[in-house]
Design a protein that fits this description.
Largest sheet: 8 strands, mixed
Organism: Spinacia oleracea (Spinach)
Oligomer: single chain
Strand order of the largest sheet: 1-7-8-6-5-2-3-4
Bound molecules: S-adenosylmethionine
Helix content: 25-40%
Mean pLDDT: 79
Keywords: Methyltransferase, Phosphoprotein, S-adenosyl-L-methionine, Signal, Transferase
InterPro entries: SAM-dependent_MTases_sf (IPR029063), TPMT (IPR008854)
Protein name: Probable thiol methyltransferase 2
GO molecular function, one term: thiol S-methyltransferase activity
Distance between the termini: 57 Å
Structural class: alpha/beta
Amino acid sequence: MRALSAFLFHLLVTPPPSSAIRIHPLTRCHHCATLPLMVAHKNSGETSPGTVQFSPAVDKLQEFLHSNPSDGWERCWEERLTPWDLGKPTPVLQHLLQTDSLPKGRALVPGSGSGYDVITLASPERYVIGLDISEVAIKKARELASSSPNANYISFTQADFFTWEPTQHFDLIFDYTFFCAIVPNMRSAWATRMADLLKPDGELITLMFPIDDHDGGPPYKTSVADYEEVLHPLGFHAISIVENELAVDRRKGREKVGRWQRTMTVCSL
Ligand SMILES: C[S@@+](CC[C@H](N)C(=O)[O-])C[C@H]1O[C@@H](n2cnc3c(N)ncnc32)[C@H](O)[C@@H]1O
Protein backbone atom coordinates (compact mmCIF):
# COMPACT_ATOMS: atom_id res chain seq x y z
CA MET A 1 0.00 0.00 0.00
CA ARG A 2 2.88 2.38 0.76
CA ALA A 3 4.29 1.82 -2.68
CA LEU A 4 1.05 2.57 -4.44
CA SER A 5 0.53 5.61 -2.28
CA ALA A 6 3.90 6.85 -3.39
CA PHE A 7 2.95 6.32 -7.04
CA LEU A 8 -0.21 8.31 -6.58
CA PHE A 9 1.75 10.95 -4.70
CA HIS A 10 4.01 11.20 -7.73
CA LEU A 11 1.03 11.71 -9.97
CA LEU A 12 -0.31 14.55 -7.93
CA VAL A 13 2.63 16.42 -6.41
CA THR A 14 5.21 18.59 -8.15
CA PRO A 15 8.76 19.00 -6.85
CA PRO A 16 10.83 19.95 -9.95
CA PRO A 17 14.51 18.97 -9.86
CA SER A 18 17.11 20.01 -12.44
CA SER A 19 17.19 18.87 -16.03
CA ALA A 20 19.73 16.77 -17.83
CA ILE A 21 20.53 15.85 -21.39
CA ARG A 22 22.33 12.64 -22.20
CA ILE A 23 23.18 11.46 -25.66
CA HIS A 24 24.53 7.97 -26.25
CA PRO A 25 28.20 8.56 -27.09
CA LEU A 26 28.41 5.89 -29.77
CA THR A 27 25.27 6.79 -31.61
CA ARG A 28 24.68 9.44 -34.21
CA CYS A 29 21.59 11.30 -33.09
CA HIS A 30 19.27 12.22 -35.92
CA HIS A 31 16.85 13.84 -33.47
CA CYS A 32 19.18 15.96 -31.35
CA ALA A 33 18.85 18.87 -33.73
CA THR A 34 15.28 19.23 -32.62
CA LEU A 35 14.74 17.82 -29.16
CA PRO A 36 17.14 19.96 -27.13
CA LEU A 37 15.48 22.99 -28.66
CA MET A 38 12.27 22.34 -26.81
CA VAL A 39 11.05 25.48 -25.11
CA ALA A 40 9.36 25.99 -21.81
CA HIS A 41 5.62 26.12 -22.12
CA LYS A 42 3.01 27.21 -19.63
CA ASN A 43 -0.14 25.17 -19.61
CA SER A 44 -2.85 27.40 -18.27
CA GLY A 45 -5.13 25.78 -15.78
CA GLU A 46 -2.58 23.20 -14.64
CA THR A 47 -1.65 22.83 -11.02
CA SER A 48 1.24 25.07 -9.98
CA PRO A 49 4.53 23.48 -8.98
CA GLY A 50 4.49 22.48 -5.35
CA THR A 51 0.75 22.12 -5.20
CA VAL A 52 -0.54 18.93 -3.64
CA GLN A 53 -3.94 17.60 -4.54
CA PHE A 54 -5.52 14.79 -2.59
CA SER A 55 -9.04 13.59 -2.95
CA PRO A 56 -11.23 10.72 -1.82
CA ALA A 57 -10.92 9.46 -5.39
CA VAL A 58 -7.24 8.79 -4.83
CA ASP A 59 -7.93 6.66 -1.75
CA LYS A 60 -10.51 4.77 -3.74
CA LEU A 61 -8.14 4.23 -6.62
CA GLN A 62 -5.51 2.79 -4.30
CA GLU A 63 -8.09 0.50 -2.82
CA PHE A 64 -9.27 -0.69 -6.23
CA LEU A 65 -5.84 -1.47 -7.58
CA HIS A 66 -4.81 -3.30 -4.45
CA SER A 67 -7.94 -5.22 -3.70
CA ASN A 68 -8.63 -6.11 -7.34
CA PRO A 69 -5.31 -7.17 -8.83
CA SER A 70 -7.06 -8.87 -11.74
CA ASP A 71 -9.53 -6.14 -12.72
CA GLY A 72 -8.37 -3.10 -10.77
CA TRP A 73 -7.75 -1.02 -13.88
CA GLU A 74 -11.19 -1.83 -15.25
CA ARG A 75 -12.79 -0.80 -12.01
CA CYS A 76 -10.84 2.46 -11.98
CA TRP A 77 -12.20 3.26 -15.41
CA GLU A 78 -15.72 2.22 -14.43
CA GLU A 79 -15.61 4.52 -11.43
CA ARG A 80 -13.88 7.28 -13.42
CA LEU A 81 -10.94 7.15 -11.05
CA THR A 82 -8.34 8.27 -13.57
CA PRO A 83 -6.17 10.93 -11.90
CA TRP A 84 -3.38 10.26 -14.41
CA ASP A 85 -5.56 11.37 -17.32
CA LEU A 86 -4.46 14.76 -18.68
CA GLY A 87 -7.71 15.19 -20.61
CA LYS A 88 -5.63 16.12 -23.63
CA PRO A 89 -2.60 14.84 -25.52
CA THR A 90 0.73 15.26 -23.82
CA PRO A 91 2.13 18.51 -25.33
CA VAL A 92 5.52 17.10 -26.29
CA LEU A 93 3.90 14.88 -28.89
CA GLN A 94 2.71 17.93 -30.79
CA HIS A 95 6.25 19.27 -30.75
CA LEU A 96 7.68 16.01 -32.07
CA LEU A 97 5.10 15.97 -34.83
CA GLN A 98 5.76 19.58 -35.78
CA THR A 99 9.46 18.87 -36.08
CA ASP A 100 8.62 15.81 -38.18
CA SER A 101 10.96 13.68 -36.15
CA LEU A 102 8.70 10.68 -35.56
CA PRO A 103 8.79 7.50 -37.61
CA LYS A 104 5.83 7.02 -39.91
CA GLY A 105 4.25 3.68 -40.76
CA ARG A 106 2.68 1.72 -37.90
CA ALA A 107 2.66 2.97 -34.32
CA LEU A 108 1.52 1.46 -31.03
CA VAL A 109 0.51 3.17 -27.80
CA PRO A 110 0.36 0.55 -25.01
CA GLY A 111 -1.83 1.44 -22.03
CA SER A 112 -3.48 4.07 -24.21
CA GLY A 113 -6.15 5.12 -21.70
CA SER A 114 -8.49 7.75 -23.14
CA GLY A 115 -6.59 7.67 -26.42
CA TYR A 116 -5.55 11.32 -26.74
CA ASP A 117 -1.98 10.45 -27.69
CA VAL A 118 -3.17 7.84 -30.19
CA ILE A 119 -5.38 10.38 -31.92
CA THR A 120 -2.58 12.95 -31.98
CA LEU A 121 -0.09 10.56 -33.53
CA ALA A 122 -2.42 9.31 -36.25
CA SER A 123 -2.18 10.63 -39.78
CA PRO A 124 -2.46 9.32 -43.33
CA GLU A 125 1.26 8.45 -43.04
CA ARG A 126 0.99 6.83 -39.64
CA TYR A 127 -1.54 4.18 -38.60
CA VAL A 128 -1.80 4.03 -34.81
CA ILE A 129 -3.11 1.28 -32.56
CA GLY A 130 -4.10 2.08 -29.00
CA LEU A 131 -3.96 -0.91 -26.69
CA ASP A 132 -5.54 -1.05 -23.27
CA ILE A 133 -6.61 -3.80 -20.93
CA SER A 134 -9.74 -1.92 -19.94
CA GLU A 135 -12.93 -2.29 -21.94
CA VAL A 136 -14.23 1.02 -20.59
CA ALA A 137 -11.05 2.85 -21.60
CA ILE A 138 -11.20 1.37 -25.10
CA LYS A 139 -14.85 2.35 -25.47
CA LYS A 140 -14.10 5.89 -24.35
CA ALA A 141 -11.11 6.15 -26.68
CA ARG A 142 -13.12 4.86 -29.63
CA GLU A 143 -15.80 7.47 -29.02
CA LEU A 144 -13.20 10.20 -28.81
CA ALA A 145 -11.44 9.05 -31.97
CA SER A 146 -14.62 8.73 -34.00
CA SER A 147 -14.74 12.49 -34.58
CA SER A 148 -11.07 12.77 -35.47
CA PRO A 149 -10.28 13.68 -39.09
CA ASN A 150 -7.77 10.84 -38.91
CA ALA A 151 -10.24 8.27 -37.60
CA ASN A 152 -9.40 5.99 -40.53
CA TYR A 153 -5.84 5.72 -39.30
CA ILE A 154 -6.70 4.73 -35.74
CA SER A 155 -7.81 1.54 -34.07
CA PHE A 156 -8.18 0.53 -30.45
CA THR A 157 -7.73 -2.99 -29.13
CA GLN A 158 -8.66 -4.31 -25.75
CA ALA A 159 -5.92 -6.73 -24.72
CA ASP A 160 -3.20 -7.40 -22.20
CA PHE A 161 0.06 -5.93 -23.48
CA PHE A 162 1.95 -8.94 -22.12
CA THR A 163 0.02 -11.54 -24.09
CA TRP A 164 -1.31 -9.66 -27.12
CA GLU A 165 -0.11 -11.02 -30.44
CA PRO A 166 -0.46 -8.56 -33.31
CA THR A 167 0.00 -9.69 -36.88
CA GLN A 168 2.50 -6.99 -37.82
CA HIS A 169 5.41 -5.19 -36.22
CA PHE A 170 5.66 -1.50 -35.44
CA ASP A 171 7.85 1.36 -36.61
CA LEU A 172 7.13 3.32 -33.44
CA ILE A 173 5.97 2.54 -29.92
CA PHE A 174 5.09 5.39 -27.59
CA ASP A 175 4.94 4.64 -23.87
CA TYR A 176 3.62 7.28 -21.51
CA THR A 177 2.74 6.34 -17.93
CA PHE A 178 2.52 2.69 -18.87
CA PHE A 179 5.97 1.59 -17.64
CA CYS A 180 5.26 3.25 -14.28
CA ALA A 181 1.86 1.55 -14.07
CA ILE A 182 3.16 -2.00 -14.16
CA VAL A 183 4.75 -3.75 -11.21
CA PRO A 184 8.56 -3.73 -11.35
CA ASN A 185 8.91 -7.47 -11.72
CA MET A 186 7.13 -7.10 -15.05
CA ARG A 187 9.59 -4.54 -16.38
CA SER A 188 11.86 -7.13 -18.01
CA ALA A 189 8.81 -8.63 -19.68
CA TRP A 190 7.83 -5.10 -20.75
CA ALA A 191 11.21 -4.68 -22.47
CA THR A 192 10.99 -8.08 -24.12
CA ARG A 193 7.59 -7.21 -25.49
CA MET A 194 8.94 -3.93 -26.83
CA ALA A 195 11.72 -5.80 -28.61
CA ASP A 196 9.25 -8.36 -29.98
CA LEU A 197 6.74 -5.79 -31.18
CA LEU A 198 9.11 -3.32 -32.86
CA LYS A 199 10.59 -3.73 -36.30
CA PRO A 200 14.38 -4.19 -36.11
CA ASP A 201 14.90 -0.52 -36.98
CA GLY A 202 11.81 0.66 -35.11
CA GLU A 203 11.90 3.31 -32.42
CA LEU A 204 10.67 3.17 -28.85
CA ILE A 205 9.80 6.48 -27.24
CA THR A 206 9.42 6.44 -23.50
CA LEU A 207 8.05 9.54 -21.90
CA MET A 208 9.50 8.67 -18.52
CA PHE A 209 7.52 9.73 -15.48
CA PRO A 210 7.76 10.08 -12.54
CA ILE A 211 11.52 10.69 -12.37
CA ASP A 212 12.70 12.13 -9.07
CA ASP A 213 14.36 11.24 -5.78
CA HIS A 214 11.23 10.58 -3.83
CA ASP A 215 12.04 8.07 -1.07
CA GLY A 216 9.96 4.99 -0.56
CA GLY A 217 8.21 5.07 -3.90
CA PRO A 218 9.76 1.96 -5.40
CA PRO A 219 7.15 -0.06 -7.29
CA TYR A 220 5.96 2.77 -9.45
CA LYS A 221 8.76 5.25 -9.16
CA THR A 222 10.94 5.26 -12.27
CA SER A 223 14.44 6.38 -13.16
CA VAL A 224 16.39 6.39 -16.39
CA ALA A 225 18.44 3.55 -14.92
CA ASP A 226 15.26 1.48 -14.52
CA TYR A 227 14.70 1.70 -18.25
CA GLU A 228 18.34 1.08 -19.10
CA GLU A 229 18.45 -1.96 -16.86
CA VAL A 230 15.81 -3.77 -18.87
CA LEU A 231 16.41 -2.28 -22.32
CA HIS A 232 20.20 -2.53 -22.60
CA PRO A 233 20.35 -6.34 -22.34
CA LEU A 234 18.02 -6.51 -25.34
CA GLY A 235 20.28 -4.33 -27.47
CA PHE A 236 18.34 -1.09 -27.10
CA HIS A 237 20.41 2.04 -26.78
CA ALA A 238 19.28 5.59 -26.14
CA ILE A 239 19.37 7.81 -29.16
CA SER A 240 18.64 10.67 -26.81
CA ILE A 241 17.34 11.29 -23.33
CA VAL A 242 16.22 14.84 -22.66
CA GLU A 243 14.24 16.72 -20.09
CA ASN A 244 10.66 17.18 -21.24
CA GLU A 245 10.40 20.96 -21.09
CA LEU A 246 6.88 20.69 -22.41
CA ALA A 247 5.56 18.58 -19.55
CA VAL A 248 2.34 19.85 -18.02
CA ASP A 249 3.11 22.03 -15.04
CA ARG A 250 2.40 19.49 -12.34
CA ARG A 251 4.84 17.06 -13.98
CA LYS A 252 7.50 19.56 -15.00
CA GLY A 253 10.99 18.55 -13.95
CA ARG A 254 9.98 14.94 -13.48
CA GLU A 255 9.60 13.82 -17.08
CA LYS A 256 12.23 12.85 -19.59
CA VAL A 257 11.82 11.90 -23.22
CA GLY A 258 13.80 8.77 -24.03
CA ARG A 259 14.24 7.65 -27.62
CA TRP A 260 15.56 4.14 -28.08
CA GLN A 261 16.57 1.87 -30.90
CA ARG A 262 18.09 -1.55 -31.03
CA THR A 263 21.72 -1.86 -32.00
CA MET A 264 22.04 -3.04 -35.56
CA THR A 265 25.01 -5.21 -36.50
CA VAL A 266 26.67 -3.67 -39.55
CA CYS A 267 28.56 -5.99 -41.91
CA SER A 268 31.72 -4.29 -43.12
CA LEU A 269 32.64 -6.89 -45.75
C1 LIG B 1 -1.55 5.21 -15.70
S1 LIG B 1 -2.68 4.82 -17.02
C2 LIG B 1 -2.01 5.74 -18.40
C3 LIG B 1 -2.97 5.94 -19.53
C4 LIG B 1 -2.45 6.84 -20.66
N1 LIG B 1 -1.19 6.36 -21.20
C5 LIG B 1 -2.30 8.25 -20.20
O1 LIG B 1 -1.17 8.76 -20.15
O2 LIG B 1 -3.33 8.86 -19.88
C6 LIG B 1 -2.22 3.16 -17.42
C7 LIG B 1 -3.13 2.51 -18.44
O3 LIG B 1 -2.63 1.22 -18.72
C8 LIG B 1 -3.71 0.30 -18.79
N2 LIG B 1 -3.13 -1.02 -18.49
C9 LIG B 1 -2.70 -1.47 -17.28
N3 LIG B 1 -2.17 -2.70 -17.40
C10 LIG B 1 -2.27 -3.03 -18.72
C11 LIG B 1 -1.88 -4.17 -19.50
N4 LIG B 1 -1.30 -5.24 -18.92
N5 LIG B 1 -2.12 -4.17 -20.82
C12 LIG B 1 -2.71 -3.11 -21.42
N6 LIG B 1 -3.09 -2.00 -20.75
C13 LIG B 1 -2.87 -1.95 -19.42
C14 LIG B 1 -4.73 0.81 -17.80
O4 LIG B 1 -6.03 0.37 -18.06
C15 LIG B 1 -4.57 2.32 -17.96
O5 LIG B 1 -5.46 2.84 -18.93
